[in-house]
Amino acid sequence: MASIGEIVDQTPSAEVLSRARQRAILVPDCMVEARRIANTVIAGWHGRRKRGIGENFWQFRPYADGESLARIDWRRSARDDHTYIRDKEWEAAHTVWLWADMSPSMMYKSTYAAVSKESRALVLMLALAEVLARSGERIGCPGIMEPVSARNAAERLATALVHAPPSTGLPQTEMIRGASDIVLIGDFLDDADRIMQRVAPLARRGLRGHVIEVADPAEEIFPYSGRTEFTDPETGEKLVSGRAESVREIYRNAYLARRENLGQSLRRMGWSFIVHRTDHLASEALGAVHGYLSGNPPRIVPNASSGVGAGANV
Amino acid sequence: MSGFAFASPTILFALIALPAIWWLLRLTPPRPRSEVFPPLRILATVLKREETPAQSPWWLTLLRILLAAAVILAIADPVINPRSNPLASGGPLVLIVDNSWASAEDWERRVQTADLMISDAAEAEIPVSLVFTAEATHDAVPASATVAREHLAAARPKPLVPDRLRAARAVTEALNGTQPGTLAYLSDGIATPADGDMLTALASLSPRDMQLIEGDGQKSLAVTGATNNAAAMSVNATRLKTEGAQNFSVNALDQQGRSLATGTLDFAAGANTATATINAPFELRNDFARLSVEGIATAGATHLLDDGFKRRRIALLSGDSGNDFQPLLLPLYYISRALEPYADLIQPRGGDLAASLREILTSNPSAIVMADVGRLPEESYAPLQQWLNRGGTLIRFAGPRLAAAPADDPLVPVRLRQGERALGGAMSWADPQPLAAFPNFGPFAGMAPPADITVRRQVLAEPTPDLNERTWASLADGTPLVTTREVEAGRIILFHVSADATWSNLPISGNFVEMLRRLVQLSRAGGAAPPEAGATAAALPPYRLLTADGILSTEVGSARPLAIKVGATPIASLDNPPGLYGSEEGFTAVNLLAPNATLSPFDPSSAVFPIVRQGLAGGEAWSLRPLLFAAAFFMLLVDTLIVLFMNGGFARLPRAGRAAAMLAVFAGAIAFAQPGDAHAQTPPAPPAQSAPAQSAPDPNAPIEHAKPGDDTILERLDTTHLAYVITGEGDVDRISEQGLDGLSQFMTYRTTLEPGAPVGVDITKDELSFYPIIYWPVSATAPMPSAAAISRIDAYMRSGGTVLFDTRDQFSSLDSGGTSPNGERLQAILANIDIPPLEPTPSDHVLARSFYLLNNFPGRYNGSPLWVEARQDARNQGTGLSSSGDGVTPILITGNDFAGAWAVDAQGNSVLPTVPPDDMQREHAFRSGVNIMMYMLTGNYKADQVHVPALLERLGQ
After folding, report:
1. 0.80 exceeded by pTM
2. Global ipTM
3. Exposure of A52 by Cβ count < 10 A (0-12 exposed, 13-18 middle, 19+ buried)?
């Protein structure tokens, strides 16, 4: 009998990129909610609701002496006896950090899913990069790529990933400065406490985070039965179960409890937590994170079975 | 005879390896399935460290050890009851085989036994002398085992009693003093009178060893006779083994082998004869063709009956000799007409009643019919009475003479009143009486009640208490019409009406024939019982012979005609094997055993030397190998299931499916565990089954194979061809072809239509649908087309084709003044075709304007109108024959001989002159042809042109 799960090779970036683009096409432009956008001078598309450097009209106001004559809007001023100046809205860019877990456990793919977790995570990451770059946001990858604001940010991210050293665990946070958003994609199978230890400093620094847990269906429903030897792909540890079906319920409870625990801890910090299974469409998770990023958290829970991920920002 | 042996015992040494297998199996536990599992850490928190068995459970190991042992044992091929009868060496093996009727049931086993002995002989290189006791010729010369085996394979059981003495003598003769080694006698176990002599003859050979091999004889059972009693048929049978009570059912079969009735043979313990009674109405009993004991397929268990199928000899006797030139007034006329089809009639020549009766009685008829014989000569009563007592049937008809005869006639069934009773006469109040329904007993039971028979006159029976039960048919008022009385073995039947049509219309009704037929069936086929034996002898050819399996076959082989001696029951012999002799109309049955024969066991005690008795081989030596293999396979299956279960193979299935799968697997295991049964229950798929599937046409499949004639069809479709009917008369057909050729040339010059060469069609088989019009020169001298051909023409016309009939008789009808022969032929042809009403072409018909403007349509002759379908009113359009042809008439009839006018030879010159010789008329004939063709091809398109002026006028407004 063929085994249910397997460890697959790392997915080539080019393929992931093309798939990510397909996903990105389906998602509208994403303007990161500008509530707490860093007060930077980098021009972007986030209207700051105040006058500044930008393209869009903000207001007419009377001319004050000392201002450049060139800024007078003669057409408006001709209407009455006052002289007006046309103000533009200050538009700034926002930085979004994207990070995907590339550890060996992410290479896992079961017969229940079409792709490995790593593949799905990369697709989500690049698709987000594509969508955000389309909206003019700055895309960065902690430890791999400095934030760039470019239309081809997704491609550059893909290229950077190819050359990146294999990473394990959680992202290096040295690069991250200032208020920005960070999207973490991984399976988060480690201890919730350990994860929180790494994540909490980021939150304290004012980063807004979105965590997407990519899970394989086999990990969640535990379809194994009979005498089975389980191997950890990261540590190589082995565990033999005489009748695997007998521990299914207990395992499931433990697995879901871990997830609930993690989700609650993250939400307490104000971060959002999205659960995504690889047998579902990537667009689901993409849509959910899109909603969180643009300040419209999805009302409908995408994965009813997980029971988490809703109302993170409320 | 019982025992246990291994065919190849050396294999058993492999059993030593079993402990090693045990050790190996204990060492290797079932391998777990390996799974990669990233959330192992989570799993590790919940998973208690289980006791993983390092070794297989002991019972699984035991099962596997048993499996291995079963395989080793099966390879060693254990055999229960191994056959062991050594042949004595030092002389040829003499094998005497009974291939008599009683050996048919277990013939295969007998052949097997003999074959084994021959094999032993072949191993020992001993020649074999093989004889069969029921064969006509014996070849007992010792031969090689191969030859003997061929003889054995060719031998079949015969439906005969063995002739053992002859076989023994043949052996003695063939051995010619050589002392045989083993003398084996495969006996059927039934004693014959010559057994003692045979044993003596065999003893004189002084064999070194003598073996008597017998079957169990449980099915050695023979039907020895059947007699038809008043109410039932009783069947006698005898059996060989008398210990134990046995039940057999006897089926009575008709000629087609259908079972009509069944009786039961109850053999009491110790009895070797039994009698079965088959209860059936005698009409049914007359249909009995043979009796067969169910479950035993031997010639002995089948008894052929001939009584019901024998042609009866029936003598006719009339009171007045009558005159031959008024036969309808003779009473015997109706009787002989009714009986002729199924009886041999004897009509004495002389008028003298006494002499006639003597003559009749010497031929011993089944029945004598007396029509209106009042009183017989005194000396005739005694022989007639004797004949009746022996079983004759006397059928009498009333008449004026009988009515006037004295009442004490001993040869009437009931006491008659003097004189007759007339009904419905001028002076009578009573109406002529119809017949009442037939009573449900007697031979007429079940016949439809006659409705149209009236009796005007009859003789009356004196009422007696038993009159009712003697009456087989009566009138509506209850007076008897047919009465009967049994006289010892015989029977007298009286019709109370005359045999001619004067007293009633019974003799001229169909019921009369049926009633007489039934009465004749009732009579004994063999006539009255024989007064003396050997009166006549006739040779009957074999008709159907019984095989040893008790089946009738038409294979008559070397059977000789049967010489019948009157009174002697024919006995089956080598020349006359059991079967039916005669012909389809009537036959005599020859059965295997004489009536009242009994079967007794073969008794070798009279032999003067020791005899080893043993049973047949085959089936007793029983190999355990298939059983062991099946057990091993079953254990393998169970082992697989257990391993699958232990590895959780079933846990993956949904719960309902799991149960179903387990059930299916176990059912399969049980089915495999009984391989023999399973095979018996699955008959081999008939090979024919796949044939229709292959030949079924696939509608999507492209037509790959061009058929012969396709090119012709394509050519016909590419070009328009004119066609004519081949009448079979050379000159007519030649003119037709030349005429259509001429018309084709004319059209090619003058019109855009360029037809191909004219085609002659055979309306009986050629495809007609390629041609828009078919020219049919009607010729009275040509053979009349068949009805099928005419119906094809009809179909052609219905599907839109047009036939141009040309009677070519415009002027010939003038001389005869009526219809010409060609016209009559046309009428005959059209008689079976539903043709529409016709009219001469009106001047405004499309035909007159479809190309040229024409007033008439001349051919070689001028003046005959061109008949077309009458144009119908608008409301009738769309109905009738012409609807399919877009208003084009399906039929054109002319007498002007178009083809004659159109005919041109190879040089383009006209073949026939027009009448009168007028070139303009020929030109008009061509124009007629062109118009007809244009009309055919364009339909009523030209008719629309008629409305052009009106259309133009309307447009102008």
Report:
1. no
2. 0.72
3. middle
